[in-house]
Prior knowledge:
The protein is α/β, with parallel strands linked by helices. It is 26% helix and 27% strand.
Amino acid sequence: xxxxxxxxxxxxxxxxxxxxxxxxxxxxxxxxxxxxxxxxxxxxxxxxxxxxxxxxxxxxxxxxxxxxxxxxxxxxxxxxxxxxxxxxxxxxxxxxxxxxxxxxxxxxxxxxxxxxxxxxxxxxxxxxxxxxxxxxxxxxxxxxxxxxxxxxxxxxxxxxxxxxxxxxxxxxxxxxxxxxxxxxxxxxxxxxxxxxxxxxxxxxxxxxxxxxxxxxxxxxxxxxxxxxxxxxxxxxxxxxxxxxxxxxxxxxxxxxxxxxxxxxxxxxxxxxxx
Length: 274
C-alpha cells in the first residue's frame, strides 16, 4: 500500500470464530507492528464512512451461463452498501469497457441495473488489464477508502498485462480487493489461485460461491464487511522506500478472532533538501 509521508492507513476486518463481523472493539484492544516493531496508533475509526467501489465484472463468453447471477450479485452488493458509497463498473472480455462512465451513488440502483443489464458475454478474458483499469480509476477517487469487487473465474487469456505487474500495482495502492470466483467444471481456463493472491495481497477476501443463492449472500457479506471494518493509522517509522510488513493484533478473551488487513506497504523515500 502506498502512503503519504504522514500516515500509514490500514483497513482492518475482525471476525469471530463463526465468521461473524466484530465491529465494536475499542481502540485500546488493537496493537500494530511494523516490521515487528510496535507502533503508536494515531488514527482509529470504526464508523461506517462512504467508500469508492469499483465493480470489475467478467463478461467473457465462458461467463454466459452465469452472467445473470453476476448482475444479481452486483445489485445485491449495492443494496447492502452505504447509500453514499460511490460505485462504478468495468466489464471485460477481449477488451476492457467502462460500463459506467461516471461514479454513481450506491443508492441509485436504477442506473446501476441499467448499466449492468447491457452486458453481452462474448470473447476471451482480459482480467489483468481490467484490474489495472480499475486501479487507475480508483486512483482518481474522492473517498479515502477504495475497494475493488472482482467477479470472475480467475482465468486470463487476452491481457497484455502480466499477473506480477498487477500484484505489484495492488501492493502499491490503497485498494482492498475482494474476489468472487464463479467456475464451470468444463472450463479448463479457471484460476482460483489468482483470485486468492489478489485478495491476500490487499487485505481483502476470496469467496467461491457454488450457487446463485450463495453468491448473493457473499456479495451482501462483503458490503457488510466494508461497512463494519476499522480504519487504523500510524506514523511510518522509516522513510526508506522499502517494503514494510504489517501485523495487527487484537487483545480478546476469544483467541479465535481472525484479523485481516494488508500484509504490508511501501514506505515513502527520503527527500533530499537542496
